[in-house]
Design goal:
heterodimer, A: 298 residues, alpha/beta, six-stranded mixed sheet, four-stranded antiparallel sheet, elongated, B: 230 residues, mainly alpha, 9 helices
Chain lengths: 298, 230
């Protein structure tokens, strides 16, 4: 399977500063890959390299089976910058220009423009796009990126200026795009959104890829378990007891995996009914903070 | 087609400035004609030469600042993320600098003809100056673009102006090509005299512009856009 986007040992230096260090990463067709990392990690640099705005110091990569920066490949790519800035003109003018630059012609261009402006709720706006609010500009950025029905969507912080309803709209758009077989590569600090929609995540820090894989593989802890009992008649192992819910008469324990057997036996001895035994899941936020710390660097 | 689409948007950004410049030759002609007395032909010729200089400056300044402006505003990202090559983008900038010059020159021609008639002089010189402006304007635009690829806007404008100055000097020492064309432009008479071999110089000027544009495009393809990246 040919990757929609592939970084191959991609390195970028700004003078003596290493912005990206031998990045190897691929986005498979139809998948949504969340690109995470603290500010200054090199996410935008990677995106700019893929689109050909910057030249790699060494290494390179492929975008839709063409070298980075190939204009022919960009015909099937949609890009939303973090803070889109438009030429003078209405939202419709902006979307039409994007379509024309990608070789689209009427009547398809007219239809897609209308469809996209309806999707981002800008169909009725006649105002100059430069005078839009940040949220409206971001929605227009998404519309102009989708007008050519791209195979690969690259989004740099697409929801940073959106209200909750706008965030939900974007989430649905990205999920729909993925279901249609399009690949989505997006950087975001909205971790809850990443958790909801990404098939895989890649975590970058100081130009290095620290983690890449399915979110479940990272959020599931191999070290701790969560055990839930109902109807425990006595307090057992208070050290590991985390919560008691009176209404349901359930007791929750979180303990090292090595203690799992002892807790279960103690619970049964105390007349409890074992409801569940699960691995403890970490939130993406916890992971983000952990990975950003020095001691977790690999 | 794509360069025209982009150029249209770029020109629209500066539409009021271009409109003002387009009206400039008419305003100057009115100043000379309004007092009622027949203007001095030498004054008219001097004014036409000045207008030629302004036309070339318009092309050079517009071309040398456009790329920097577009990078600073990051509008360039939304254009170059589409199926647009960097050569097409530079061509768009050139068109956005040169097409307003055509408008300006149209005003120059009309007002020049009116002035030439007012002093009963032939219009050949006015037409020659217009044609030379169009050709040299293309070169001025390309020079501006070349410097803007490698230098920040202000430096590029200074470098472009200095380059035109050097060309003028080359013309003074009888070096054929754009220098000669520039020297002939500023010494042009109403009769169209001082235009020995203008076609040859015009062709050399266009070839020079093509070579500089190719060099600018080659460089631009190999350079990072000037963006503050995360």
């Amino acid at each position: 399977m040919i990757a929609a986007l592939e970084f191959q040992e991609t390195t970028k230096h700004y003078g003596t500063q290493k912005a990206l260090d031998r990045l190897n990463l691929s986005v498979k067709p139809g998948e949504i890959l969340g690109f995470l990392g603290p500010n200054g990690a090199g996410k935008t640099t990677a995106i700019y390299l893929a689109l050909g705005f910057l030249q790699a110091t060494s290494g390179g990569g492929q975008i839709l089976d063409k070298p980075f920066g190939d204009p022919a490949a960009r015909k099937s790519v949609g890009f939303v910058p973090d803070a889109p800035n438009f030429f003078a003109g209405s939202a419709a003018d902006t979307v039409k220009l994007a379509g024309k630059l990608n070789g689209m012609r009427n009547p398809r261009l007219r239809e897609r423009t209308k469809e996209m402006l309806n999707t981002v709720s800008l169909a009725e706006t006649k105002k100059d796009a430069r005078k839009f609010s940040r949220g409206m500009q971001q929605r227009l950025g998404i519309a102009q990126a989708l007008v050519n029905d791209p195979d690969l969507l690259i989004l740099d912080e697409p929801t940073s200026a959106l209200d909750p309803a706008g965030v939900v709209e974007v989430r649905e758009l990205l999920q729909a795009a993925s279901q249609e077989g399009k690949s989505v590569f997006f950087s975001s600090h909205q971790l809850s959104e990443v958790e909801r929609i990404c098939d895989r995540i890649a975590f970058l820090d100081r130009g290095k890829l620290l983690r890449c894989g399915r979110l479940e593989d990272f959020t599931e802890s191999t070290e701790q378990v969560e055990i839930v009992f109902r109807n425990l008649r006595a307090d057992i192992l208070p050290k590991y007891q985390m919560a008691h819910t009176a209404a349901k008469n359930t007791t929750r324990f979180v303990a090292p995996r090595s203690e799992q057997r002892r807790i279960i036996e103690a619970g049964w001895t105390a007349g409890g009914e074992l409801l569940s035994v699960d691995s403890v899941r970490k939130s993406l936020e916890q992971l983000f903070i952990e990975w950003s710390r020095e001691e977790f660097r690999v | 087609m794509k360069p025209f689409l982009i150029a249209h948007r770029l020109m629209w950004q500066n539409r009021w400035l271009f409109l003002l410049l387009m009206l400039w030759p008419y305003a100057m002609a009115a100043i000379l004609l309004l007092p009622g007395d027949k203007p001095d032909p030498a004054d008219i010729l001097s004014m036409l030469h000045q207008e030629c200089f302004y036309g070339l400056a318009l092309a050079a300044v517009t071309a040398s600042t456009q790329l920097g402006n577009e990078q600073r505003s990051r509008r360039i990202l939304l254009v170059l993320s589409k199926a647009v090559s960097r050569t097409e983008y530079l061509l768009a900038i050139l068109l956005a600098a040169w097409l307003p010059l055509l408008l300006y020159v149209s005003g120059f021609v009309v007002s020049g003809i009116v002035l030439a008639h007012a002093v009963q002089r032939p219009i050949d010189g006015v037409l020659m100056m217009a044609a030379m402006q169009i050709v040299l304007g293309l070169l001025a635009g390309v020079i501006g673009i070349f410097w803007s690829v490698i230098l920040p806007s202000i430096m590029a404008t200074i470098a472009a102006s200095a380059s035109l100055g050097l060309l003028f000097f080359a013309g003074q020492v009888k070096m054929p090509g754009p220098g000669q064309l520039l020297a002939k432009l500023v010494s042009m008479r109403f009769s169209g005299a001082a235009t020995e071999n203008p076609i040859f110089d015009g062709v050399v000027t266009l070839l020079t512009a093509g070579a500089i544009f190719a060099a600018a495009s080659w460089l631009f393809h190999r350079r990072d856009l000037n963006l503050t990246a995360d």
